[in-house]
Amino acid sequence: MRLADPGRRAIVTEVLLMNPTDGSTWSAAWMWSLPLIVATVVFHSVGLGLIDHGVSLLLDGRGKNRLPFLLSMSVMGGTALCATILHGIEGLLWAVAYLLLGAVSGRQSATLYSLNAITSYGHTDLDLKGHWQLMGALEALNGWIVFGLTTAFLFTVIQKVWPHIHRSTERNAQLP
Questions:
Q1: What are phi and psi of 39, to 5 degrees?
Q2: What Å distances lie between residue 121 and 18, 33, 108, 173, CA to CA?
Q3: Residue 7 confidence (pLDDT)
């Protein structure tokens, strides 16, 4: 691409000199989205750490009898529920930002839009106002990051729970 063309030079200059306080540029979306992404990833990591602590306490038993099969499986269900609540809270944080910025009108619309964006589901006819639309794409990127963390975490919990299930079924098989 040659920059000799005045139109191309103007576009490149506009992109390079975006004013973050100017709501008509996409830089405002970046300015709001990046701290939200960092905040939700940190929040999610802390939340997963707390859930992991609870799972470890349940599975450890501190020398007592190991958890029976049904209870071990319930640990997985409870872990998934807690992770889902984390994702919901993170979606609500984005919805609050959309409301504060006037990017969408109404709490329900903001929440629905946010949950559609963070899950990359996108089956709604709601849209953010023009200069905030990049923010929706950045929320989807945030969703990929936290859902990736959740997937890795659930895999780790499965690795912790399965030995308890096998011990429980082996113990039951040995009973007369």
A1: -60, -45
A2: 30, 19, 17, 45
A3: 64
Is there a contact between 93 and 41 (Cβ–Cβ < 8 Å)? no
Task: Tell me which amino acid residue 134 is.
Answer: L
- Please write down the HEC assignment for all residues of the chain: CCCCCHHHHHHHHHHHCCCCCCCCCCHHHHHHHHHHHHHHHHHHHHHHHHHHHHHHHHHHHHHCCCCCHHHHHHHHHHHHHHHHHHHHHHHHHHHHHHHHHCCCCCHHHHHHHHHHHHCCCCCCCCCCCHHHHHHHHHHHHHHHHHHHHHHHHHHHHHHHHHHHHHHHHHHHHHCC
Q: Which of 159, 153, 151, 155 is CA-nearest to residue 59? A: 159
**pTM value surpassing 0.85:** no
Q: Would you state the pLDDT for residue 20?
A: 46
**What does the block give as tokens for 92?**
């609500």
Q: Is the pLDDT of residue 106 over 70?
A: yes
Within 8 A by CB and 6+ apart from 145, the residues are 37, 41
Higher pLDDT, 11 or 28: 28
For residues 129-156, average pLDDT: 94
